[in-house]
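Consider the tokenized backbone below.
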């Protein structure tokens, strides 16, 4: 791939002195989660200890691990669990190593990087987002292997370095590599979120983010001058805010009555930064606003861009619009009987007696990049009856929910990887559809 250098740092076969496999030889899954939480993988930290951790786990499971460092300091790990027929499209189980910042001073009961278990609950950064899921994938696959279960299709565990900051050094370039192409992926599983009810959300699409900066320019003046409101930077920006908040109120009306499963049906918009002014007695020449917008999945991107420009031009002259972030809307993964991957997950849920709810989350994950690359993807984290604490203080997970999740993945992975040979189309985009109007 042009511009991308794929460095395979290590392909392990036998024990190497570098990694301490004995350390984890007798660890239970929850002990592995504790050990992983204890590695401080706050985004931009050196991930070498995490790479060593996964290298040791790969070795314990006797599977290969490759490290692709497409951008220096941002390793991407790929663990391969071979199936009986590697010519079949594979199952990709993705998670990210990085976590958002956390410190005791933020008000945590326990140090967020210790993984303390108290009263059947593990506390720590990554216990929901998403070190728990990585360990669950691994524990399920390892248990299957130890029980001599051979699956039909190859299963890959991929671990990304920078999901929390936009995947520019992780998933986005990885999807363009020969290494990814060689995986012959049929479907990808990615992160979901906890659900406060006895059910698990299955995300089949994400809401993409646009961040815009609006700069209102006008003629600066002495604090005692008195220009018409519409000729001031603040007055022009007020017009912008008024119009965008009118839209916000309309969308809020829809959101307020929408089911939690229907976040795709409205566009959220927040004014998150206001900047301007140089001195208390100077009328400013420029005021700027930053809005964070999460697009409804049915919104037409071209029309919405034109709409924003129209509202801004109506607010006055000399107002500029700059995109800080303009993510491309992703297609949705088909969630009915025509998608064998969805059928496999549904059958697993039935077998397990759990409820899986196809839904669209209010935010987005790496899965959107996978769908944009043309592959069906689902966001799924087996955390029913769990308060949503992603990125929050005192992020935690019940140990029982964590352990049940391993059983859930064992069933789901088995069914996905045993979808009969040649019954999935090699045109994987057949399991995607556009929802934009
Ligand atoms: C974790 O890493 C972050 C980012 O480097 C750092 O600010 C923080 O102090 C670390 N926390 C601990 C407990 O080591
Ligand atoms: C799996 O196979 C190995 C080698 O044949 C055998 O030693 C082991 O007992 C088997 N494990 C189970 C759980 O059947
Ligand atoms: C100021 O501009 C806004 C937006 O174009 C307009 O609705 C309003 O009538 C103007 N106010 C005055 C006093 O001209
Ligand atoms: C726009 O801003 C520039 C620079 O501040 C100023 O020279 C110009 O007169 C403004 N144009 C209008 C129509 O207000
Ligand atoms: C499955 O979903 C796709 C996308 O929404 C739709 O086009 C198709 O008609 C559905 N098929 C069935 C059998 O429901
Ligand atoms: Zn996450």
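A designed sequence for it:
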């Amino acid at each position: 791939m042009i511009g991308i250098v794929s460095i395979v740092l290590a392909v392990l076969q036998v024990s190497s002195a570098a990694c301490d496999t004995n350390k984890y030889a007798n660890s239970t899954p929850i002990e592995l989660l504790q050990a992983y939480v204890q590695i401080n993988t706050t985004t931009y930290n050196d991930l070498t200890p995490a790479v060593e951790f996964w290298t040791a786990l790969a070795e314990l499971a006797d599977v290969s691990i490759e490290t692709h460092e497409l951008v220096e300091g941002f390793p991407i790990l790929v663990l391969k669990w071979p199936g009986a027929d590697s010519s079949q499209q594979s199952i990709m189980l993705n998670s990210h190593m990085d976590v958002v910042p956390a410190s005791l001073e933020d008000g945590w009961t326990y140090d967020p990087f210790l993984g303390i278990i108290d009263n059947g609950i593990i506390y720590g950064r990554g216990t929901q987002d998403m070190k728990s899921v990585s360990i669950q994938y691994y524990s399920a696959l390892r248990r299957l292997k130890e029980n001599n279960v051979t699956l039909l299709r190859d299963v890959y565990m991929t671990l990304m370095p920078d999901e929390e900051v936009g995947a520019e050094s992780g998933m986005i370039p990885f999807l363009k590599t020969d290494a990814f192409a060689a995986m012959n992926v049929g479907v990808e599983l990615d992160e979901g979120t906890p659900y406060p009810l006895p059910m698990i959300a299955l995300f089949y699409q994400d809401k993409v983010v646009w961040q815009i900066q609006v700069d209102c320019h006008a003629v600066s003046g002495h604090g005692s001058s008195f220009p018409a409101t519409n000729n001031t930077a603040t007055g022009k920006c007020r017009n912008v805010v008024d119009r965008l908040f009118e839209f916000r109120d309309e969308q809020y009306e829809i959101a307020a009555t929408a089911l939690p499963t229907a976040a795709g049906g409205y566009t959220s918009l927040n004014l998150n930064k206001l900047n301007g002014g140089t001195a208390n007695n100077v009328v400013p020449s420029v005021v700027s606003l930053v809005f964070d917008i999460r697009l409804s999945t049915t919104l037409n991107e071209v029309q919405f861009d034109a709409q924003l420009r129209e509202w801004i031009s109506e607010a006055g002259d000399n107002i500029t619009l700059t995109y800080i972030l303009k993510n491309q809307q992703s297609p949705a993964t088909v969630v009915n009987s025509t998608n064998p991957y969805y059928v496999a997950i549904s059958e697993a849920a039935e077998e397990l007696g759990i409820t899986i709810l196809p839904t669209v989350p209010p935010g987005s994950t790496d899965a959107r990049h996978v769908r944009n690359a043309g592959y069906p993807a689902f966001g799924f984290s087996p955390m029913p009856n769990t308060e949503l604490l992603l990125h929050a203080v005192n992020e935690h997970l019940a140990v029982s929910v964590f352990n049940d999740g391993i059983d859930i993945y064992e069933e789901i992975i088995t069914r996905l990887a045993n979808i009969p040979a040649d019954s999935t189309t090699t045109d994987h985009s057949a399991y995607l559809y556009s929802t934009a109007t």
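The longest strand covers residues 209-217.
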